[in-house]
Amino acid sequence: MFETILDEEERGQVGIGTLIVFIAMVLVAAIAAGVLINTAGFLQTQAEATGEESTAQVSDRLQVVSQSGNVTDGNSGDRVVDQLNITVAQSPGASNIDLNETSVELIGDNGQETFQLSADQASIDIYTGEDGDVVLTDASDRADVGIDLNTTNSGIYGVLEGGDRLSVTFTTPSGATTTAELRVPTTLTSEQSSVRL
To answer: Which of 186, 182, 179 shows the shortest CA–CA distance to 165?
Structure first.
């Protein structure tokens, strides 16, 4: 039943040396496994953060509900738009949006201007919430953003005349952008105090 091994080359290695080599191999494998687990955890955390930021950059957008302009007499006697009134809301699926940290870019015939909504050229009138609170927290929240264009009254960009076009881009703190294309009607009459753009 038991076979006696007489050849020395066919015998298994035994002793303290073999045990030390075995323990060393187990330690190396354990250290390698620990490094792999730490790396996988770091990559998972980084992937989650990147996913959340990417989702916010896509979903945390403003939605333009309406856009109008204030019509007044210009310096040359013709009628001009000297202030923009843009009503904004959260896009579906967006989280809270702080309008004070939202930037605006105006691009048109008068050039390009970029500024924060908290700047002197802009005013925010939120329809829901407390005074001074300019954070959109719910899909039903609405805010009227007023942008002063008349540069003689510390405004920005310059007034719009009949037929002018203006591109307005809102960029939220998460980096999501919303663009509205505004077009002033070709004829502004003296009866108009405001006009839909």
So the answer is: 182
Q: Residue 92 sits in a domain of what CATH number?
A: 2.60.40.10
Q: Say if residues 106 and 157 touch (Cβ distance below 8 Å).
A: yes
Number of domains in the chain: 2
Report how far Cα 47 is from the mean position of its chain's Cα atoms.
Answer: 18
* DSSP 3-state of 27: helix
What values do phi and psi take at 121, rounded to 5? Answer: -75, -10
For the segment 36-44, the average pLDDT, to the nearest whole number, is: 89
Q: 19 — alpha (psi -120 to 50), left (phi > 0) or beta?
A: alpha
Q: With 70 as the cut, is the pLDDT of residue 78 above it?
A: yes
Contact between 103 and 114 (Cβ < 8 Å): yes
- Total number of residues shown for the chain: 197
**How far apart are alpha carbons 166 and 106 in whole angstroms?**
7
- Whether residue 66 is contained in a domain is answered as yes
Amino acid (1-letter code) at residue 178: T
pTM above 0.85, yes or no: no
The pLDDT of residue 94 is 83
